[in-house]
C-alpha cells in the first residue's frame, strides 16, 4: 500500500490513483463513497486555508495602515519641531 502524503489537498488525487490504478478496475459504490469523502475533506481544508489567508491579509493591511499613520505623525512632529527651533 502506498504511503499517503501529510497534505490533505493531495488526498483526493492519491486515493483516485490508488483506486483506479488499473484500467480495468470497475467503479463501485464503495469507491464512489471514498472519493466523495476525500472530496469533502479536501473542500473543508481548502475553505480553512482560504479563511486563514484572508485573515492574514486583513491583519497585514491593518498593520501597514497603522505603520503609515505612525510614520506620518512622526514626520509631522519632526517637521513642526524643526520649524519651532528655527524661529
Automatic annotation (TrEMBL):
<feature type="signal peptide">
    <location>
        <begin position="1"/>
        <end position="23"/>
    </location>
</feature>
<protein>
    <recommendedName>
        <fullName>Secreted protein</fullName>
    </recommendedName>
</protein>
<keyword id="KW-0732">Signal</keyword>
